[in-house]
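Incident log entry.

Two folding requests arrived from the same account within the same minute. Monitoring flagged them as a possible duplicate submission, but the sequences differ. Recording both here for audit purposes.

Request one:
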Amino acid sequence: MTRPALNPCHLLNHLHAILDSDPYIDELGFIHPSQFAALNEELHSSSEPASLLSAETRSNPVRDTSSHTFFWHNEHKLGISTLFLVPLYNAAKDAFMDAYKRYSMLRGSQVKKDEKLDDNSLNSSASLMDIVETQVMKHSRALVLLSCDFGTAWNSRKLIVSKKLVFSVLMDELRLSALVLSCSPKSERAWSHRRWVIKMMAGNCSNLQEIVERESELVKTLAESSKMNYRAWNHRCWLVSYMSDSQVLLELQCSRDWAEVHVADNSCFHYRARLLLQMIENLRRNNKRGGLSGAEFHQVWEEELDWVGMLIRRYVGREALWLHRRFLSLFLHNYP
């Protein structure tokens, strides 16, 4: 297939326009050009009449003069043609590095000159800084979608967001990293960014437990589509320290069904071990607000042993099951 002539900057502007028009895009994919026709046919053959499709839910392909499709956007889903990934990435990287260079220079000059500037100059400098920060955030957003482990882009977002720590902005960061993970579920940078955001929220967030619950559900969803995803389960283990006693117990109960049909996935059993250890820690701290007593915890531990024993008999030779049983046996007598 011959690649049509295009302006990468125009291509990048198209991407920015889509992202700005729909801040709730929740799924990203890189699509071969041959798949666009099938996607549009599937949309048009849906049972819903075309006349009833709103502007928000209607397919929005972006094309050039040669009718080659660049993007597919529908119902908060975004597809990007693989044919144009390289020029789009190069344009996004160049735009970001240029904006970040201006931001670094302006930030350095502000530190040196703040004491010498009058009020008008300070206001002008602050206004210019806001403009440059907006550009950095805009171009870093596109860049991390195209290159999920571009550390400088993620770090620049942390630097700017940390200056104000506005809750709505932090939620935007969670949405962006979730969008990245929808396409790259094993991206360590994206998972690390989510942990940073939650840490920033922890001290000033009234609904932190709700956010933690949604995080746990996100890991469960991604674990279904991305097998043996150690980074996702490691993130879920990290979340345990932010859970209430009742959440820990609920997570232990809810993760059992998933573990029963994924007996080869050691990460899930490691997560259950982390939950049990958190229960021990809560008991040692005498934290009984909605928690378990020592006798109740002993019963939970015995039930876990019996359950793993049943799985071992059902699935002979599964190493993850034996490792979990070994953990349970070693710590059986160490509860408070």
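Request two (distinct sequence, not a duplicate):
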Amino acid sequence: MPALSQTRAYLALLVIVALWGSYPATAKLALRDFSPFFLTAARCTLASGFLVVLLLRTGGAAVRAVEARTLRIFLVLGLAGIWGSTQFTYVALHYTTAGNAVILQAAAPVGVALMARAYLGERLSRAQWLGVGVSAFGVLLVVTSGRLAALRLEELRAGDFLTLAALGGWSVYTVYGKRVLGELSPALATTGAYVTGTLLILPTALLTAPFYPAPRLASPVAWAVVFYQGLLGAVAHIWWYRAVQVVGPSRSAVFMNFQPIVGIALAAALLAEPIGAWQL
């Protein structure tokens, strides 16, 4: 694929984050019938197969480029971005609200910027450091439901902390991905990450199955979410890496601040979640 222009990269990022902003609310619909680990396994298996087909249609050159070092790259990307980030984002959603999750995910630019500073040597401007501080304060407001002083320990949601942990995986996926995109195409890197991550997710789903109710396999809503997030999400991951190639990880991650606009609205519309003053 030809490289994106900067304008198209920015437009692609807006579309991608709008799509991702819809994920928490729609995932909560699926989680009524599927466990978070089963939902992850179903989505990623579908996405992996879809990406492999897309990659093979581009010709065999990309597949022939795979070697031992490439497999190690796939392992890092799959472990961080798919097994760590995607999987535990769904687990987090099982234990928190969609509104909280999508707001906390907007803190991703902080993790990406700090990791890009440490790993790629990207310099942070004063405005970016200010953004780090503001985002950290925003995270505290969401996690404590706006009651920083009066909150009791038992009122904290485990899902909020799992969301933040999943963002760590996403930061690694984005920043490390920027470096390896010099030798791998976005399509190959994304496909390798998904396939490797899915191979790690499947045994995890089997091991955790006894701890959750059996999935309601006849649920049309849950399967609709699997196909919606699996197919569109797979394509979005490719375009995310294409945009990262052009504008860099830190600038790309800034667009994730737009996710709450879509996410909070959908959480209220689809799930009737109340919107707290600290979420605005």
